[in-house]
Specification:
The chain is 48% helix and 16% strand. It is α/β, with parallel strands linked by helices. It folds into two domains: 172 residues, Glucose-6-phosphate isomerase like protein, domain 1 (Rossmann fold, 3-Layer(aba) Sandwich), CATH 3.40.50; 156 residues, Glucose-6-phosphate isomerase like protein, domain 1 (Rossmann fold). The longest helix is centred in the middle third of the chain and has 35 residues.
């Protein structure tokens, strides 16, 4: 798992190379996607586990950048709903293996009912990539550890590039904006690479400090909420320590009763200073952290590098170099992966082969 966390910069570069020609879209890669999108811009995403968290992030990215109407379903639920969907949305399925039984069933159900489909998967020539109307393979390389790391960040990368492609096609972002955003996503691998060793050292120390925790509550807002969900899932599957992800604004609607010395918070508090919406969410998170400090909660925050406000309000702070709002999710999830890895070591868990789990769930 640790090796695959460190492989993420190169995995992201390889995935981008499939879809970008310099700072423009590779025409050959996107030609098969020309007809996948519903004429009304309606998309249903079906996935499971970490792939569903990538889908939750994609929902916001596709809505914000492209103006699409997106719903996200658990693949296991969508595959068992036989009622026809009168909107006939395009169906996007996401899977590391391309063989996940529930997600494959969702894809086949969508195909049988006449939906246009798009599959994103990491394993070359997998069933989903072969059967979908269109496909976007990833280039994460073979992933051996059961907890998904490099395949997940490659999913986020491909989904972001897909959103930019649709934004250009639908003219929701002008040419200069697309060029700037493509250059930014191409730089993200290098940014992660520069920060990995620091994150590794810091999260190892945090795991020692918080090894007595019985539960973690992961909190964030907007597109970052999906990363809170992913961080909590990584903690559960890698270390066997219970964790749950919530929108930050929901903490006081019940979960705050759990917060104690042995139930710390992990709060994603990054911000894009150029986005009014992002700054508004950040200010609300600052207010929450102020309240949690008064309450005496133990808080680990993921924040922008140099953010002294967040650092003053939490017990511990892991810093991430700032990028734009919808790209922040890619680097900010990496310290969460590392934290779950080191928590597993603290609890003497075989992190690559956690009990009761398999790499690809091929039996429903």
């Amino acid at each position: 798992m640790l090796r695959e966390i460190y492989e993420q910069p190169d995995a992201i570069r390889r995935t981008l190379a499939l879809y970008l020609d310099g700072t423009t879209f590779a025409a050959e890669a996107f030609a098969p996607l020309a007809n996948w999108l519903n004429p009304r811009g309606e998309v249903l995403i079906a996935a499971s586990g970490s792939s569903r968290h990538a889908g939750l992030a994609a929902e916001i990215i596709l809505e914000d950048l492209c103006g699409l109407a997106v719903d996200v379903e658990y693949a296991s639920e969508y595959a068992t709903r036989t009622a026809a969907n009168p909107r006939n949305p395009s169906v996007l399925v996401i899977s590391q293996s391309g063989e996940t039984s529930d997600t494959l069933a969702a894809l086949r159900y969508a195909l049988s009912t006449g939906h246009e489909t798009l599959a994103i998967a990491n394993v070359p020539n997998s069933t989903m990539l072969r059967e979908a109307s269109a496909c976007m393979p990833l280039a994460a390389g073979r992933e051996l550890a059961i907890p998904a790391t490099k395949s997940f960040t490659c999913q986020l990368t491909a989904l972001y590039v897909l959103a930019l492609y649709e934004a250009q096609r639908l003219k929701t972002i002008d040419g200069a904006g697309i060029t700037r955003m493509l250059a930014e996503v191409k730089a993200i691998a290098g940014q992660i690479e520069r920060q990995l060793d620091g994150w590794r050292e810091q999260t190892a120390a945090l795991a020692r400090k918080y090894s007595d925790a019985t539960t973690f509550l992961y909190l964030s807002r907007g597109v970052h909420y999906a990363m809170a969900r992913e961080g909590a899932l990584k903690m559960k599957e890698a270390s066997y320590v219970h964790a749950e992800g919530y929108p930050a604004g929901e903490l006081k609607h019940g979960p705050n009763a759990l917060v104690s010395e042995r139930v710390p918070l992990v709060v994603i508090a990054t911000v894009d200073e150029s986005s009014a919406d992002s700054k508004n969410r950040y200010e609300k998170t600052v207010q929450l952290l102020e309240d949690m400090k008064k309450q005496g909660a133990r808080v680990i925050a993921i924040s922008n590098a140099g953010d002294r406000t967040i650092a003053s309000l939490c017990s511990d702070c892991v810093e991430v170099e700032p990028v734009s709002e919808h790209l922040l999710i890619i680097p900010e999830v990496v310290p969460l992966q590392l934290f779950s890895y080191f928590m597993a070591l603290e609890h003497d868990v075989d992190v690559d082969r956690p009990r009761n789990l398999s790499k690809a769930v091929i039996e429903a």
